[in-house]
Amino acid sequence: MAITLKQLRYLTTLQEERHFGRAASRLNVTQPTLSQQVRQLEAMLGATLVERGQPASLTPIGRDIARRAREILSEVAEIQHLADRAQGMLSGTVRFGVTPTLGPYLMPKVVTRLHAAHPELRLHIREGIPDEQARALANAELDMLLAPLPIDHPRLHVEPLFREPLALVGPPDHPLHRKGQATARDFEGEAILSLDPRHHYSRQVADICDDLHATLLRDYEGTSLDGLQQMSGSGLGLAILPETYLRSESGGEHIVRRFAIADWEAYRSIAGVWRKGSVLADAFAQIAAVITEEANRTLA
């Protein structure tokens, strides 16, 4: 009896959910069916793949097989995408990773355009830490990634898409707003808020603090740009916010105001990323082109 794609999909889903009931629900099968298929796979391979308990977890050999299984399933999906592209369309489900400091403020317009042009294309969007998502992409757990640079991985193709301005903001009653046009030197010693240090955004904010001789508030790390905006608006500290956020419905300058600084500006560079040699490289490039066009419209 040969190993089936269904069995590989069951194993990878079980690893992600770490629970037979949740995995069965996600796969739209009964729990006994899932359990039976996993046991059949173990019997064919002559190895125990799953440690049954709460939570269910894979054995070391099970984890190795699940990693290879994801690569196989990804290749099979790419073959289907390739066949669809021969008919002039993008279709199927693309597992799309994006940083939470960009996705909510740019992707809605991108999704609208892609759905209108390619109604059979589905984006399974996962927000996450860019460095962690780059590893997931290299391991075939994602298909494409939209993230800030730098990204350096030997298995990934990095396509720079656009540069996004960053703004230094503070509460509307901050004394430097009354000055009119400030200089970088005026912010020496000012307290600046940031996010979880695992974010590339946090590392960039730290570099900006060094340039301005400002103080990075590590005791008040936000979990989102909304949180930074609100903390800054309350007077807890200044914040550095991306332009796409400030131009979004949830962002704006009703709680904070950007400072006019004569001798300072900052940007972040955003890239589309996919695995080198992917048969879907042309399709990912099409998606990246739409992202670039929408970003340029938003930032114009």
UniProtKB/TrEMBL annotation:
Residues 3-59 form the HTH lysR-type domain. SUPFAM superfamilies: Periplasmic binding protein-like II, Winged helix' DNA-binding domain. CDD domains: PBP2_OxyR. Belongs to the LysR transcriptional regulatory family. This is Hydrogen peroxide-inducible genes activator. It holds the Pfam family LysR_substrate. It comes from Alteriqipengyuania lutimaris. Keywords: Activator, DNA-binding, Transcription, Transcription regulation. Gene3D superfamilies: Periplasmic binding protein-like II (3.40.190.10), Winged helix-like DNA-binding domain superfamily/Winged helix DNA-binding domain (1.10.10.10). PANTHER family: HYDROGEN PEROXIDE-INDUCIBLE GENES ACTIVATOR, TRANSCRIPTIONAL DUAL REGULATOR HCAR-RELATED. The keyword S-adenosyl-L-methionine does not apply. GO terms for cellular component: protein-DNA complex. GO terms for molecular function: DNA binding; DNA-binding transcription factor activity.
